[in-house]
Amino acid sequence: MFDALRLFQTEAGLIFLSIGCLCMDAFLPVEEKRGRTLASIAMIGVALLFGHLFFQWGNFGTAMAGSYVQDGVALLFKGIFLLAGLFTLFMVREYQPKLKRGHGEIVLLVLFSLVGMTFLASAGDFLLFFIALETLTVSLYIMTAYTRHKSASIEAGVKYIVLGALSTAVFLYGLSFVYGAAGSTHYITIQTRIAAMPHVPTSFLFGTALVVASLCFKIAAVPFHLWVPDVYEGAPTPVTAYLSIGSKAAGFAALVRLLLTALAPAQAQLAALFAVLAALTIVYGNLGAIPQTNLKRLLGYSSIGHAGYMLIGLAAFTSGGGESVAYYLLSYVFSTGGAFLVLVALSAHVKTSEIKEFAGLSQRSPLLAAGMFLALLSLAGVPPLAGFFAKFYLLWAGVKAGLVWLVLIGVLNVITSLFYYLKIVKVMYVDKPLDLKPITLTADQVFFQALSIGGILVLGIAQGPFVRLIAAAFQK
Q: Three-class SS of residue 186?
């Protein structure tokens, strides 16, 4: 019993942290101040759990009859989730003055969603997978419509929950076919039984396609992307950031785990499907971002394009694609997180997230302008930043898998993305400011902005240790 419990240290830590914050929420006075206190406590707890992951390396095994798996891949993705959660909790704390109510509850929702994410990374059975996925998505539904006094937030929440419920129905329908073909919901059992058959059953392929389609909704791949622009614009800014870096990472973590196990027998068919989805998603995301005037909508379309790049890794899964997806997600947390840190810091000084509000930002706050500048260039894939090597790693996996046509589409769209990212840079550094009043940052804001910039630079310049760590995580 104790031997099994040692595997649940991260999940248990998050659950106790959530319960502790829930109890404190009932006793701390003054709502807004209480929210900041809870967010600070949650940040400390998540940071400690992130550090504790390094001491769990090698603490591998299974529990609950193989339904729970602790291995290098699980620990790797849990680290990415906790990092995304840390950024989000800080943004939630800084965003408290913009909330009229529920200052403490939103912190609890972030923690509960992290519990779902961590179990999702270790799921070895579709039943645990489904419970973890719903724990995550229900929290996201509530957070999306959190500012209920704003019609845009309510609209975003309704769209997200309706389409999310549809994707859940598609998942369960697909799972019924997978179960019918394999007679089990356990990943390894499914893989073993389907691999032992002379041909992959058509029912299994059909069920697999539906399961993948439901997860494509989570990662915002074309044609399951329609919710993204409106939800990203209408949701509170920290929630938009969390949807971009946390929810997307969870979706890809689930797909990677499934490709390693339950869906491995259909990997050849899925590679072709992922290649087509990657091409459509990259092109649509980048072309859709060009005419946008709202930065949150632009980052929404941009996130669709980035999902397309990561789909290249899934299409080239047998050629190191899984490792390249993990590295891309790690760099994406720092790049996208850095951009949203600037948005949250500016939320107290501007009324909207329109790009024109960033006019002359370099004169009002050189650090915020530099942070946004590096984040955007990293997202575009400019060397020597994190995004450049992440894209190179993915595209190289595509070349090794023989997907040269797809790699060419990816390279050409890097040029397209430079246009709309540099449009923002031009507004910050060339246009005259609408307000000459300097923006003063707190020590915490400076620290997290420096953390984001440091992550972008380190992951771009000194990739070796991280690449070796990720490769070790994927070794069986």
A: strand
